[in-house]
Design goal:
By secondary structure, the protein is mostly helical. The protein is built from eight helices and two strands. Helix 1 packs antiparallel against helix 3, helix 1 packs across helix 8 and helix 4 runs antiparallel to helix 8. The chain starts with a helix and ends in a 15-residue tail after the last helix.
Length: 251
């Protein structure tokens, strides 16, 4: 074989090898590019999912905070009114002054029942609104939820004595009956409406409470409830714009 022919064969082999190498390299690059495209698409999908979940979480938090802002003042006022009556019963002998022989005992009794009912009403309104949201991890709202639970638990507990024991289901039932429509939303009925509706709507739910309101063993429960209510008012009015430290003294 002459040199020219041999050189031609070598050139052909080299060209074929280069072509094969280029083909393999092109395939490898195509595979790598496809893999990169898949990874990029997966990353974009994950980022989109994470963004949407973050937006939903932010919406839930803003909605929960908006609800808490909307009901902050009436709930704080109801909690303050109830803790004030608890204080008067425990520290100022309210039912010793306005006992069963006093002419104003029916009023003392009814106004006390109303303060319980009003608090249960606003607590139930907030619970109903919040339950459809994923309650955020924001400290203020979490603290309010904890304190609402503490008040409910202390009133329902039978650890020490059953005097003035109001189970959570009973608290909610009273709260439900306090809720009335108001300007496209809901509100708690006032004292006059409560008195008018008492016999038909509340008397059965308050039967045991009436018997225990002025019972000495109930004072321990009222004292603990008053402390939790003060903490709740403090959490709702952190800046002390409406209720001072002096007004939130523990019994």
């Amino acid at each position: 074989m002459d040199i020219v022919a041999y050189g031609g064969i070598i050139g052909t082999v080299v060209s074929a090898a280069l072509a094969l190498r280029q083909t393999l390299e092109a395939r490898r690059l195509a595979t790598l590019n496809s893999s990169l495209q898949e990874n990029l698409a997966r990353l974009n999908s994950d980022l989109q999912t994470e963004r949407l979940e973050h937006e939903k979480q932010l919406d839930r938090q803003l909605n929960a905070e908006d609800l808490l802002t909307r009901y902050r003042e009436p709930l704080a006022a109801a909690a303050f009114d109830l803790q004030s009556r608890c204080w008067n019963i425990v520290k100022n002998n309210f039912f010793e002054k306005f006992g069963r022989e006093h002419e104003r005992f029916p009023d003392a009794q009814m106004t006390t029942l109303f303060r319980f009912a009003q608090y249960f009403g606003w607590a139930e309104i907030l619970r109903r609104e919040i339950q459809f949201l994923s309650f955020p991890e924001e400290e203020d709202t979490r603290r309010v939820a904890e304190l609402l639970s503490q008040v409910a638990t202390r009133l329902a507990s039978s650890d020490d004595d059953e005097s003035l024991m109001i189970w959570v289901d009973e608290q909610r039932a009273i709260g439900e009956r306090m809720i009335v429509p108001h300007e496209g939303g809901v509100h708690c009925m006032g004292y006059a409406a409560f008195c008018d509706a008492y016999d038909d709507c509340f008397a059965r739910l308050f039967t045991r409470v009436i018997d225990d309101l002025d019972a000495p063993p109930a004072k321990a429960r009222l004292r603990d409830a008053q402390q939790a209510l003060c903490d709740l008012v403090g959490a709702l009015d952190k800046q002390r714009l409406r209720y001072s430290e002096a007004q939130l003294g523990h019994a």
